[in-house]
Amino acid sequence: MSENQDTQKSFLETVKFDDRGLVPAIVQDHETGKVLMMAWMNLESLKMTLEKKKACYWSRSRNKLWLKGESSGNMQDVHDIMIDCDGDTLLLKVSQKGGACHVGYHSCFYRKTTDGEQMEICDTLMFDPEEVYGKKS
Amino acid sequence: MSENQDTQKSFLETVKFDDRGLVPAIVQDHETGKVLMMAWMNLESLKMTLEKKKACYWSRSRNKLWLKGESSGNMQDVHDIMIDCDGDTLLLKVSQKGGACHVGYHSCFYRKTTDGEQMEICDTLMFDPEEVYGKKS
Q1: Per UniProt, where does Zn(2+) bind (chains A, B)?
Q2: What is the pTM assigned to this prediction?
Q3: pLDDT digit string (tens) for B83-116?
Q4: Where would I find the H helices in A1-137?
Q5: Does A14-125 carry CATH code 3.10.20.810?
């Protein structure tokens, strides 16, 4: 077993950030196991998540730290953080307040396909994005 | 709701591959909800997955198509494929034969930290990698 696959190194030393300094974080409801979203973290947002126990990401579109729920109020309380064998993907077990998805659904994975062509909605709408984020001008 | 967030376009048209032509795929046990791994797909591996209903990825380390389980026998039968709001992450619901992780665990996420420093093993060893893949020379 290589050094990156065991538990000898510290957690932060084990995380492998990519060439942009980011690592993907899968977010899962800690009680139901439902996968809610995937987002990206840099070292700063990971440290903030560990410190505050609230999920904090790096927004690639806005190029800034993103405390999940800072606009919508839909914060994520972090219960556990897991890391994969290669150290290059994280899994957060959270309690999600409201919906995780900016479109208004509970999960960002609100569409599924079985035939590879058609898609259908497979999740519950939790809020109206225009009410939460304001109307787009 | 933008075009990329609804169900009007076809599934394959909705998938947004990154600048390497890849999209991350989260893999979840379809019965227990346990997150097993994350891997990457290109268009070819996604089409093969849809066609065969067996998970097929793009191996970034070997730079080739990777039918999951082709070496270990630990195939993944694909029940559903979901796509997130931005179209840039997939979620596969699968039946996993044996362990998903090449280290021998059921899930690649076999280590967790709660304090951000120490890590502990939180999963079950399913097989001995040396027996399955052969000894490393």
Answers
A1: 85, 101, 108
A2: 0.95
A3: 999 999 999 999 999 999 999 999 999 999 978 9
A4: 11-14, 43-52, 129-133
A5: yes
